[in-house]
Amino acid sequence: LSRPIPGLTDAAGKVANPRHERADRVRLARAQRALARKERASSNRAKARVRVARVHARIGTMPKMATLKAILKISGMPVTSPDQAAQEAVAMKRLIGSPRYPFDEREVGDIGRRSYERHPGTPEGDARQRAAVAVSGDRRRALAKVRIPTLVLHGEDDPVIRLKAGRATADAIPGARLVTYPGMGHDLPRALWPSMLDQIRSLALAR
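The chain above was modelled as a monomer; its predicted structure follows.
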């Protein structure tokens, strides 16, 4: 595989395997030690930072197999009515949402229903979106060139884009600040909005 496939392959296009995580942890510790030895602002340190980010991202974009199967099961059911769209939205939220922060099923269902009524979508559109993600490539080398204050917010319990991917993003951007939230999944819980806004405000005022 020469291109990453979301949920099936890692950033290098290799089939992700959860059993490799232990070896990745060893590689990560080795890469972090190497990074600590490099002089600040040196080209070698920049390369070492990219190596750390690469290890973090190896399986960061790979959901656990049980989660992946559940996502495919939910998204594979045909949706032909607003009520079915509402049910799918609630089911997906239960699966990938934040375990520590209960959500309003009626509100989520209403969003799914109104989204369907606005435009029900098409299998072709979904395929194009997945293909766009797949061919976007590895952005870490480009991220290493970012020279503006950067904040990375990530849920510690995100079952889709795992915490390693958030760390990889922060590692790839010089000076980036990573803030993680226990109990937050693949969504933005309303209860965390004030904290997130404070983090964004601090970043903006620090410029």
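Strands lie at 151-155, 177-181.
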